[in-house]
What does this fold into?
Amino acid sequence: MTAVNKKLDPGQFFLQKLSMAKALQKRTLETRARLIAAAEAVIEESGYEAMRVEEVVLRAGTAKGTFFAHFKDKDALMELIIGARLDTYLDELEAAPDPKSVEALAQALMPLCAFMTSERYVFDLILRYSGAAAIEAIGPIAVNFGRQVDLFERWGTANRFRTDIGVDLQAEGIHAFMIQAMATHFCSLHNAQSINDRLVPYLKAWLAPNS
Amino acid sequence: MTAVNKKLDPGQFFLQKLSMAKALQKRTLETRARLIAAAEAVIEESGYEAMRVEEVVLRAGTAKGTFFAHFKDKDALMELIIGARLDTYLDELEAAPDPKSVEALAQALMPLCAFMTSERYVFDLILRYSGAAAIEAIGPIAVNFGRQVDLFERWGTANRFRTDIGVDLQAEGIHAFMIQAMATHFCSLHNAQSINDRLVPYLKAWLAPNS
Amino acid sequence: MTAVNKKLDPGQFFLQKLSMAKALQKRTLETRARLIAAAEAVIEESGYEAMRVEEVVLRAGTAKGTFFAHFKDKDALMELIIGARLDTYLDELEAAPDPKSVEALAQALMPLCAFMTSERYVFDLILRYSGAAAIEAIGPIAVNFGRQVDLFERWGTANRFRTDIGVDLQAEGIHAFMIQAMATHFCSLHNAQSINDRLVPYLKAWLAPNS
Amino acid sequence: MTAVNKKLDPGQFFLQKLSMAKALQKRTLETRARLIAAAEAVIEESGYEAMRVEEVVLRAGTAKGTFFAHFKDKDALMELIIGARLDTYLDELEAAPDPKSVEALAQALMPLCAFMTSERYVFDLILRYSGAAAIEAIGPIAVNFGRQVDLFERWGTANRFRTDIGVDLQAEGIHAFMIQAMATHFCSLHNAQSINDRLVPYLKAWLAPNS
DNA sequence: TATGAATGAGCGTTCATTCAT
DNA sequence: TATGAATGAACGCTCATTCAT
It folds into this structure.
């Protein structure tokens, strides 16, 4: 910053460039963090669906234009935030010991399921963004879905629930039934039962057939 | 309603009422039919997502208000149209002989799957309405989903794919995997494979474990 | 309104249709008038340039959507209002007796010139819309400019200022010099002189050469 | 500026200062030239109205801030570029022999008129900046307009088109009619005629009355 | 039932300009 | 001088839905 006219060897030059880039990036990152924090605060108070760009910007103390300079649109931020929360659930699951039984497996998934079904809006948004429309469009939620299946593979590898099929197929099945159990949660005809009560029979039939 | 003060004996009065009711109902039904036809024409040309109420009423030659006198909201008409198409697929499946193998089962489902994944918008809408939000909210799509599971039960009963679980659970599993296979269709990472190619392994593992 | 089910002969039917159309149009016209009145009030208080759609809509007590249902954009309303004011000046000029001398002619034009140069914004907007870009784009300002030239022709016909050229050409010249005199008004190098003082020499040279 | 503490005798110091100043000025001028060239390239491709500062700095390889370090605002650069082009037309006119007839005069002005009416945006901007808003605000376009009138005076002096009015007034009239002819060019009702065809009658009536 | 003007609330955009580094 | 993220203040738009007639 001070040493403007000093001669720099290429390495120094590179470092200066880098630090400039970082300095700039730092400010950017701070603004971005402020926006995300503001959004999370709004969500905390009023829920996901009620989050308004106007409100977020107001709290973050930035201009609206800044919001759209950081996020393509409102949904992009929404994805980011929901993806991050999904990731914290995954982090915990990954850190925890592999479930030893189908019941334990279902039980382990409940916090994640509870979050995903906390709001109809959240569930719909997750489903909408769970598949990457294009390679470059792989967003946080699609990535997280990948992590989920990877984790289920790990669990399947550890437990060898079924030996007649690959762990990958097994994992995808767990995922399919998890979605199925959650989807029916929003259906008045089924939601007397808890998600867990719906998930366990599916998983037993899937992971432990003939038993 | 006001200027009908001509004297009538009760029988005549009743008959007139009846014919008025019929006339009215006829006109009402005609308007309704015109609206549906117009909507289908618009969809034919521009797809489901691009359908606008404005455009529909323009074609139908009615006012916008008339649209909402006939359908609770835009989604209600959408459900009606999509539900009707789903029903024609179900009609065909019900009329056809029960599939004898897993491969045949998957194959039989393909036309239905193709329609359901014809547009991301269609798939999302179907999922959203596949569960009845309330008893009185059981719409065409939720009903159709019920029919699907019923049909799968029939198939399961006829074939006894698995004997360790009930036909109802078996049917729900088929449905879950059908959804899973379709969902991945919108994911660029998987859609090199056809829906059928994704569905068959799922169903084999589900319906014929240990084989 | 009451006679809903009465039979109507075609003429009556037509009248009813017409009155319905009128009833609808009346409401529309009222809303439109409210919007225009609100805009004029805002302009009265803060000037043309400071007029904000938001403020207009607030005063008119309508939704923003209503504004854009009535006017293509803000400029369309601006044109309308400025065009209307130009028209009132033209009305007065047309009602007044034809000026008998060049000085009187210039003098007569001063109120119009004063309005046109009241704000830089106004003058620029008038110039921008003074030519119709397309036949269907003939707006109020372009029409008014036509009226101006027509009036100048009438004056020229009454006075025969010049006999060597047509009244139409004469009129266009008056117009050209009027614009020229106003344009220089915004130029700090010339605006010590009044518009009138600048216009008179031009018009003398144009309308009474060799005298 | 900071790390230049090596001892120098005054002469050397002066020389270094000079060479630094030159170097700096050179770099500055280069940046400025790059910006102007970039702007001209953008204009070449997409026209004047579509020119965006963003695009210009991208091409020039500078930051946005640099743009505004060199030009007060976007319009200042626009004026510069348009003024420069106007000047080349004036240079040619000044170098050419004085037109001997009204027709020749009009003809001589056509290239200039063609440029000024090449885009509505250009014409509007020229008009807006043709008068100096303040003494210190005399920009390239206002200066060029001065040159135009000066040239018309020279022509008028050489030809003595009219003897009853001063050459300055005569010149201003030519200018007024030139503007008038161009303004009608943007009006769909008149642009069947060429600018020249509209200008000649004006100028005949102005420069050669009673003939 | 039919009408269609009006609603409404928020999203996304625009892009020249500023300012701290 | 150079940088480029941030600003800002409207504008325009969307379009399903409502409601008085």
Notes: Residues 1-19 of chain A have pLDDT under 50 and may be disordered.
